[in-house]
Amino acid sequence: MSPLITHLILTLSLIIHPQLITGEQSFISILITQNGLDFVKNLLQNRAISTITHSPIPKFESSVHIPVIGEVRILLSDVNIHQLNVGVSKVIPGSDGVAISGSDVACDLDMRWHYSYGSSIFPISISDSGTSNIQVHGMEMMVRVGLDTRKGYVKLSTNECNCHIDDITIHLDGGASWLYQAILDAFKEEIVSTVENTITYVLRTELSNLGSLLERLPKLLPVDDVASLNVTFVNNPLLTGTSIGFEISGLFVENKTDTHSFRNSLQPPVHCSDPSKMIGIALDEAVFISALALYYNAMFMHWIVDKLPEQSLLNTAGWRFIVPELYRKYPNDNMILNLSLSDPPTVQISSQKIDSVIYADLVIDVLDRNDTIPVACISLVISGMGSVQVIGNNLAAHLKMDDLATSLKWSNIGNLHMFLIQPVIWAIFETVFVPYVNARIGIGFPLPIIRGFMLRNAEIITSNSRITVCSDVTYDEAFDSTLVYTS
Ligand SMILES: *[C@@H]1O[C@H](CO)[C@@H](O)[C@H](O)[C@H]1NC(C)=O
Ligand SMILES: *[C@@H]1O[C@H](CO)[C@@H](O)[C@H](O)[C@H]1NC(C)=O
Ligand SMILES: *[C@@H]1O[C@H](CO)[C@@H](O)[C@H](O)[C@H]1NC(C)=O
Ligand SMILES: *[C@@H]1O[C@H](CO)[C@@H](O)[C@H](O)[C@H]1NC(C)=O
Questions:
Q1: I need a labelling partner for 417 at 20 to 30 A (CA). Which of 38, 174, 247, 344 fits?
Q2: Whose C-alpha lies nearest to ligand 1, atom 14?
Q3: Which CATH superfamily is domain 3-12+34-147+163-203 in?
Q4: Cα three-residue angle 95-23-356, rounded to 5 degrees
Q5: Among the residues of 87-141, which ranges form H helices?
Q6: How do residues 166-195 score in pLDDT, each as one tens digit?
Q7: Are 99 and 83 in contact (CB under 8 A)?
Q8: Cβ neighbours of residue 3 closer than 8 Å, sequence gap 6 or more
């Protein structure tokens, strides 16, 4: 199995030790459903088959005593397993871990055989060689792993790993028929146990690769140069018999320091309305609030508007009739608008919609020769409706402005008639601010998906204070060698 697959599987196949509720705070939950587990199991299985069929099998040497002829030395070499076919395979999450079994496994071995003998009676040494095919019947494989969360990562332990073969049939081409029986007798058991050991070794190695892959998963998923998503695993995986649930911290943290603390109540399990989806990722409202608080504190929510589609609005002449005093004091001067958020925006997720409120101060600056003179400040409360969608492996958002409330905070240019100014501000927001915000949040942030896996046919469910992404996944072999989250 490749590390990738292993990784996924690992993720899937947790042995959960009897659930110890340590109660660490988690704001993103990930549920891998039976369909998701089957998908990962198939990936692991294909990987294991490919590794097994490329694994060298040691040569077999023996000598047997044949009546009349004497000692015959027999050598089987160039042994290859091919056409490995798993009849039935299952992945079963249970209280003592995750079991993956393959039964009705059939495979073929081909090899070269060679024999030679010489004795004092026959002074000439005689030898012959040919090819041979061995069919393996009734092979079964079983892997059982335990998963628990330790120090923020998922630890995989292999509790059981074995391979059992019922019987083999050997066909020889060429050579002497008297030898057939001798070969069967001499090698049957040895071939069976060598193939069993080789396969067990490959499975064990792949599980151990998967385990170290899981331990190498980053604890922070970079979003941009300001923030990262804390993807530290908390609490032990939860196995239900048909699914595995993982909890991760899920909060946005600043590149340098972490300043916020959030509390959440006991969350309901991840719920997808379409039970056939492979994976469910539930994001608590706090994830979004932590993001907004972080970007607010990083002073990124600050804009100077010096260009508008309607540039006349950035000259006092454009405001002559709306704010006569402004034009009288600073005739025909250019202006800039200095917009800054006055509080972190809020987000409220309910089953019907995602509401957001943005609090901002808009300072009107007049550019008088080389001076920037603030002349008035208007407080804004912008209510918007958000929508989210999955783009690639990112959760992206879109904001639509719903309502705008304005009030005058201070003014050096007399009283402003808000009912005249409000439509202008609305227009500025619709044409400049909202598209700017949407350009940023439209990229979204990466969901915690392991590299190589892609969400497909994702569906989004909003419920009280959480957003759940339910999706199928596909896997791209090309990403196989690295073990990083996609972004
Ligand atoms: C932190 O920010 C720096 C640049 O300021 C960037 O190079 C680095 O990748 C960021 N780290 C994370 C984890 O986002
Ligand atoms: C990430 O979350 C874990 C678990 O809540 C916490 O222990 C850790 O300090 C967090 N990391 C950062 C950088 O905030
Ligand atoms: C915009 O306003 C902020 C604070 O409200 C201030 O720090 C900044 O200097 C202003 N920028 C301009 C160009 O007026
Ligand atoms: C305005 O700035 C320009 C260059 O920045 C300078 O040459 C000019 O003297 C300044 N004018 C005043 C009135 O300060």
A1: 344
A2: 222
A3: Bactericidal permeability-increasing protein; domain 1 (3.15.10.10)
A4: 115
A5: none
A6: 989 888 877 666 667 777 777 888 889 988
A7: no
A8: 209, 210, 212, 213, 480, 481, 483
